[in-house]
Write a structure and sequence with these properties.
Layout: E1 2-11, E2 14-24, E3 29-33, H1 40-47, E4 53-60, E5 63-64, H2 72-75, E6 78-81, H3 93-99, H4 104-107, H5 110-120, H6 122-126, H7 137-149, E7 155-159, H8 167-182, E8 186-190, H9 194-200, E9 203-208, E10 211-217, H10 218-222, H11 225-231
Parallel strand pairs: 3-8, 3-9, 6-7, 7-8
Antiparallel strand pairs: 1-2, 1-4, 4-5, 9-10
Helix pairs in contact: 3-7
The structure holds adenosine-5'-triphosphate and magnesium ion.
Length: 234
Amino acid sequence: MLELSGVSASYGSVPAIHDVSITIGEGEAVGLLGANGAGKSTTLRAISSLVKMTSGRIRFAGVDLSTLPPHRIPELGIAHVPEGRQVFPEMTVQENLEIGSYVPRAKAERRRTLELVYGIFPRLADRKKQLAGTMSGGEQQMLAVGRGLMLKPRLLMLDEPSLGLAPVMTDVTFEKIGEIHKMGTAILLVEQNVSRALSLVQRAYVLESGNVIMHGTSAELANNKQVQAAYLGI
Ligand SMILES: Nc1ncnc2c1ncn2[C@@H]1O[C@H](COP(=O)(O)OP(=O)(O)OP(=O)(O)O)[C@@H](O)[C@H]1O
Ligand SMILES: [Mg+2]
């Protein structure tokens, strides 16, 4: 469904990712792992057309994304939940969610999707009218994921959803992502919590200094000595 082939991207003259090739099948959950600065967020930004590619090609459901402007990407059914819970603090929880369904294909079903999101995240339903900026960090993270779901995405890209969360909240977050995946949504998950990520996804890619240095099934990576030493503390 999604295919990156030989994608490179840079910020000005600073190269960030180099020759990255990744595929995600319909309804598949795939991990993108790697240390700080490895290029994980840049890869998601390249898919969302937020950073200009210097070479390579990205295709989604038969459409070439390489030349599309950023606003066209969500219209195709790709939701990107960026790093650091970027909710609109002065708007209510429900207003934040409604913004997530601004594209025509999602707007028509806004009511029904809202009920679905509230079903997955009952905490958000309890706090519909609360200003997003006054929600706790974990609640804001749920809201950010919920807003992504409001798009009715075929592919949900999550950039470090567990960052800064307490262990209990991390558990809840992973459980919810698992539920969303079981509903049939494909997931591209960026995580530093590698052991948790590998228990959720079917396959993963490991980025190092902007290059994919390894990829395989979750079991293959979890048993790989290099992965164990670098990311699993074994
Ligand atoms: N806006 C920017 N301007 C210039 N360089 C950037 C910018 N954003 C990222 N970079 C650089 O690109 C490289 C990849 O960054 P990226 O944010 O993709 O890493 P990451 O794997 O998401 O890291 P982290 O785990 O810390 O979020 C890094 O060297 C980073 O310094
Ligand atoms: Mg990042």
